[in-house]
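Readers of this paper often ask what the protein records in our data store actually look like. Such a record has a labelled line for the sequence and another for the backbone structure tokens. Nothing more is needed to write down the fold, since each code stands for a local backbone conformation. The remainder of this section carries one protein's record, kept here as part of the documentation.
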Amino acid sequence: MHIPGKAGYKQQLILLLLIVFLASCRSTQYLSDEEYLYTGMKVVKIEGARGQKERIRKDAVVYWTLYAKPNGSLFGIPVKLLPSLGIPTYYLTENYQNKGLKRWMNRYVGKKPVTLSDVDPESRVVKLQNDLFNLGNFHAKTRYELIYRGRGENRKRVMIKYYIDLGSGYTLDETGFGAQSAKIDSLMKVSEANSFLQEDNIYDLSLIKDEQERISRTFRDHGYYFFRKDHISVDADSSFGNHRVKLHMGISPDIPGKALTTFSLDTVMVVIHDEKRGETASWIDTVSSINGLHVIQSPYTLKPEFINKKFFLRENELFRLSNHQKTLDALNHLGVFRSLNIHYTESNQPNSLNATIYARPASRINAGIELKATTKSNGFAGPGIEVSVTQRNLFHKAIEWKTSLDGAFEWQLWGLKTPVLSVNQYYLHLKNTFTFHEILSPFRFHNKQALNLGKTSVGVDFAFDNLIQYYQSVGIKTHFTYTWKKNSKEYFSLSPVSINLFEVLKTTSLFDQALEDYPFLVPSFTQTLVAGLRLSYVFSDKEPRYQKSHYYLNMNLSTSGNLLNGIVSLMDPETSGDEEQGKIFGLPFSQYTLFSLDARNYLDFAHSKQLVSRIAFGIGLPYGNSQYLPYQEQFYTGGANHLRSFHSRTIGPGSYKPQGDQGTTYIEQTGEIKVEMNLEYRFRIAYKTHLGLFMDMGNIWLLKEDPSRPGGEFRWNQLFNEMALGAGAGLRFDLNYLILRFDFGYPLHTPFLESGDRWFFNGQNWKNPIFGYIAIGYPF
């Protein structure tokens, strides 16, 4: 290792001071006479029909074609100081050696200048005009103007102002389909209802290409293996005026004969081979055949009968593109292959194909260590670590076994009514899960693809939690869960059996006082068994293009104790109707039904603008063996992803307000009913930088009166008067791999204040604090 002497340190210090000095000089002095420093776009002025204007801006064609990152930009925003520092440093340290301060300064401080020739506005406006033509603006005109900055010899900075005249955009009239034969013609028209080309739509060349691809896939799904989208001709006629285009789609006259011939499968073969074993004559471990499927494996990876269940390609059946895709999906779903490829060759039999699936097995065992730093909406934050081991292919049936140990230590850094840095907690969670990449059920399913693309998971988790000032607890959770997709938009999860056993090991006097003050907590913090069913449904119709609005819906239903209550009644009918809590194997069990809903609408506007609205609702009903919901199933609100103008668990239930120092961790501010409404307007203000303006409203309530929490009971006539309301703004930075979010909210209506003092303009409420959050990802 080279350690510089005093002279070396002195030289590097002089260099550093020289860089700082030169940074105060002009950054343009290093440019040649023909070069100019680019400082950004001044204005993008778009003229034309309003509908066309919105369409072009929505697709961001203009912005992404013309935008070039300017000198000295921070998140895409030009910052005047940065070019004067980065560019001189770049040139001063340009001829650095392999090590030392020069190299570091050049790589991390120096910035190569972006010049006018680098941006090349002439090429950009030409490309933009072509792009606009493809979007139906056949007579669009584009130009640019250079705006120079500086005086005399210093006139070396330039901004670019673009002008765009869209002209009148063209829309589609009717689209005709036709072919030489009745069979081909009927095939083209059979899926016409699913066409991307609908009358009155804006002319879009990309949509026409998508339509060619759609028709091609329809043909290939009916045995026409060699049919391609290039075999579909498109004639466009805009001569009849009114800015309308008629399209006619048909079969290209020079299409090869076999593209109009149907093909069947002669042989179907699977070759599973790890190239690390080499291509020697003895590399094959096993060869087997089952139901006409030939399987060659090296190494032996999956049982042939298990592979056979995942195949939709069969000998002597017509080639169908959908069966090709279903087979790939089913095999990829197993998670045991690094790569998959299906290769087709013509067979010796007439109009027949040989299908060969080449698969490369993945590593069977994976191990990992993950270091984490977490922040939670309840104010807890701290470091953590997770160690995991995964075996992907137990018993050669693609059964995945994952075991992980997760631990963290957390402090409550904000959200305390009485700030106490020593309030902390730590936990250790051991999780074991077996996942079967199919639906294991005694019942028959009509949809074989849904069966193959579903999963069955069985898990047992152990948890130890220590809230140092309050309690220590242990828990055991078991679950048996099915997950599957009905289609690309709908997802289901069903846990017919879910058991949670929880026990508190030790409590502090502070926590004992909380249990005494709030009796509803007692059942949740004694040894309790929660056993029942959970069902989830998720719908999302988001598509990458052509969709101005899309929806998201998440519904959850869970029940507990109904089956156990029935078993107890059968075992001891005399206990039925007793006021004493029922037990099974000496353990009390919870009995309740809980439903929650989260509905969202995403409405896209022009120029990367989006309006998001959300409604969340939940209700939990304890009955029979329970007076209260288990604490972990109760609702709360506030925090970075809910009501951002209030800290987590500081609102509700209803108009309840803790007295004095009660509830320093807000343990009592939960409820059995939850209503939330959110509205957020998002728009881009710079490259990869967005601003969000939001308004949040909501609260939680109790189903019945609780003397320990006065004002918490739900009452229809007080619904809106007890809603918390807040508004605010936030910056969102797109860092490619994540969204970094900074939100700031201000309370407008605070329900726990007196009825005449709840609005921010009453009394001294305008002095309400602003609540800030740093979070990852969007709130919804």
